[in-house]
Structure formats: structure tokens, C-alpha cells
Design goal:
Oligomer: heterotrimer
Helix content of chain C: 40-55%
Distance between the termini of chain C: 22 Å
Strand content of chain B: 15-25%
Number of strands of chain B: 7
Order of helices and strands of chain B: EHEEHEEEHE
Shape of chain B: globular
Number of strands of chain C: 2
Distance between the termini of chain B: 30 Å
Radius of gyration of chain C: 13 Å
Number of domains of chain B: 1
Structural class of chain B: alpha/beta
Strand order of the largest sheet of chain C: 1-2
Structural class of chain C: mainly alpha
Largest sheet of chain B: 5 strands, parallel
CATH superfamily of chain C: DsrC protein, C-terminal domain
Largest interface: A-B, 16 and 17 residues
């Protein structure tokens, strides 16, 4: 059973997104929340890193945190999903464990 | 669930250097308190977390308790699997020789002293995470 | 601020009686703290108190009771490493009360 990884720090400030992506197993999911959402904006320098990690993994962004930082769904890099709080719960349920990268 | 509940696999992931923030000490305290529940506990030291196990820590000049000695008590508490990530050590110019020797006495094996520190590749860390019931991050 | 008074000096303690500065501890002070706890220190009491101080010196923590029992058994044998015997010596809990007399902080996880 796969793992849901959560990241809540901006990759521009911390290395936790990088560490998270380095520790993904086949079929895992990544949820970017709080300040981490800034790393999912199209044109940003972490888009390529996310794409490279993505083949077998899904990457999502928590919508309320994105909105709070003045961004919309259109601002996300290609292939990144947008989930609300209910979607967060669905992800937690669909995975065997949650691993937080603080 | 009926009767004796199953032992669960708990992994504590430590990613912060020890004294600048409270994370490392908090993690250690949770591990010590959690040990009373007799679960199958592992600790992972990734990124700057590897610095928590450095040998020769001397905190006398910064006015905080040197809790690095406490990691050596973990064996008494049946916490005997301390996985240290090989890549995290290497990126920091460290080897396992720079870490404190930490061991436990194996009751099943005539109290033989065995090392608690296990150096693990990143790929082994990935597998370790995937086999846990609960992952707690600090 | 409250403290234990001995030979004109005061060793401050917290609201539960644990020493604030473990560096102020000495055997006389231990006897005084024990008296406050209604305990007359015997050789058996000292064995536990000294064991706790050694453990703290080595690991910077006071052990949980079950660890104390296990380690006392290893060091002194089954009669000494016995939970009942330890509670007979320190009725309010071997870790909690003996640590106070040993000048150590309250064990991690004790409330």
C-alpha cells in the first residue's frame, strides 16, 4: 500500500520538498500544502523537479492554501491536481500511511 | 480487534540538526514515552537529522542540555533500530565513524552487545517508510 | 521561591520539590529531601539513589520505572530489581520519589 507524503514548506526556503521527492516509492502521492503550494506554480524552478518525480506518483496542491496566496488553478504547472479539504481526506484514506516532510 | 492488539510498526523520521530547534529533543522524548507502549519502533535520521548522532557533542558553551547521551539509553527502552541515511551522511562530508557508537544488549543472545546504528541507502529508506503502520516526523 | 535550607544556604526547588540546580546536590541534602518525604534513608535507599545518579550521569535522563527495575535486576539481582521492593522503599514511586531525593529532574513522561 502506498504512502501519502505531505510537504508544508516553500521549496524556495527549505529542502523538504526535495527530500520528499527523493523518498517516493512507486505509486505514492504528494500533497503540497501551506507554503509548499508556491512550488507548484507554472514557470517556477521546481516544476521540472516535480515532473521528474511524477511518472508513477501523483502530485496535488491544497486549494484553500493556493487561493490564500493569490493563485488559481490556472497558475498550477501542468499535471498537478488541485484538491480541497475533502480531497485531502480522500488521499489520506487511499494511502496506508501519511509521512510529513516538515 | 479482539484479545491482544497487534504490535504496530512505528517510524520516527528525524531531519533536523539537534540544538537550534526543539525538534530533535521533542522527538527523543516522544520516543522514550512511546516506548512504554511496546511497539515495533524504528528511528530514521535523514538530512541534517544525522547530526543528532554526532560523537563528541559539547553543549556546555550554549547553555542547553547535552541530550546526545540519551540516544545511548534507547537500547534499554527496546528501541534498537536507528537507521542513518548513507546519502545524507555523504552530502555532509560525514561517515558513520563520525557518529556515536550506540549499542544494545540482546537478551535473546546471551546479552551480546550489538550495534543499534544501521546505515541505510536512500532506497532502503524508501522501503522502510513503505512497511510502517505509523510515520511520525520531527 | 522555595528551597531546602541547609547550613545557611538555600537550594531552590520547584513546586513539587525537585531541585532546580542539580549541581547543588550532596548527600546531606538528599537526607533532608528524604526527611521531607518521610523517608529514612537506609543502605537500600542509597543503592537506588546512587544507581539513578549514575544512570543520569551516563544518559542524561532518569529511567522509567520498568527500566529501573530491569537495570537494578541486572546489577543487583532479582530481590533488588523488584517493583514491589522498590515501592516499599519509595511509596510514591521509585522513579518519581527517588529521583527527587537524588536531585534529578522528574523522569520523562511522569505527570
Amino acid at each position: 500500500m502506498p504512502t501519502l507524503h505531505t510537504v508544508n514548506k516553500s521549496p524556495y526556503e527549505r529542502s523538504s520538498l526535495r527530500s520528499c521527492l527523493d523518498h517516493l516509492a512507486e505509486g505514492d502521492s504528494v500533497l503540497m500544502m501551506e507554503d509548499a503550494v508556491v512550488g507548484a506554480r507554472r514557470g517556477g524552478k521546481f516544476v521540472e523537479v516535480l515532473k521528474a518525480a511524477r511518472p508513477s506518483c501523483t502530485v496535488s496542491v491544497l486549494a484553500p492554501d493556493l487561493a490564500a496566496r493569490g493563485m488559481k488553478a490556472d497558475d498550477l504547472a501542468e499535471g498537478i491536481a488541485l484538491v480541497d479539504y475533502g480531497g485531502f481526506v480522500d488521499l489520506a484514506v487511499a494511502n496506508a500511511r501519511v509521512c510529513a516532510w516538515l | 480487534m479482539t484479545g491482544q492488539s497487534k504490535r504496530k510498526k512505528f517510524l520516527y523520521i528525524n531531519r533536523r540538526a539537534p540544538h537550534g530547534t526543539i525538534y530533535a529533543l521533542e522527538s527523543l522524548e516522544v520516543v522514550l514515552i512511546g516506548a512504554a507502549f511496546e511497539q515495533d519502533v524504528s528511528l530514521a535520521f535523514i538530512d541534517d537529522g544525522v547530526y543528532q548522532l554526532m560523537a563528541g557533542q559539547d553543549t556546555s558553551g550554549i547553555g542547553v542540555k547535552n541530550f546526545s547521551k540519551t540516544y545511548r539509553a534507547l537500547g534499554d527502552y527496546e528501541v534498537r533500530k536507528l537507521y542513518v541515511e548513507r546519502e545524507s551522511l555523504a552530502e555532509r562530508g560525514l561517515t558513520v565513524e563520525d557518529l556515536m557508537p550506540i549499542s544494545f544488549e540482546d537478551e535473546e543472545d546471551d546479552y551480546a552487545e550489538k550495534p543499534s546504528i544501521l546505515v541505510a541507502d536512500r532506497s532502503e529508506m524508501v522501503r522502510l517508510i513503505a512497511e510502517q503502520d505509523v510515520v511520525l516526523s520531527f | 521561591m522555595s528551597g531546602y535550607e541547609m547550613n545557611g544556604t538555600i537550594a531552590e526547588h520547584d513546586e513539587e520539590g525537585y531541585l532546580k540546580d542539580i549541581g547543588q546536590w550532596n548527600a546531606d541534602l538528599a537526607n533532608l529531601i528524604a526527611k521531607n518525604e518521610n523517608i529514612d534513608m537506609t543502605a537500600d535507599h542509597w543503592e537506588v539513589v546512587n544507581f539513578l545518579r549514575d544512570y543520569y550521569e551516563e544518559y542524561q535522563i532518569a529511567p522509567a520505572v520498568r527500566i529501573l527495575v530491569k537495570e537494578m535486576t541486572k546489577k543487583f539481582g532479582k530481590e533488588k530489581g523488584d517493583q514491589k521492593a522498590l515501592y516499599a522503599l519509595f511509596p510514591y514511586g521509585p522513579a518519581k520519589q527517588a529521583c527527587k531525593i537524588a536531585g534529578l529532574p522528574k523522569p520523562t513522561g511522569c505527570v
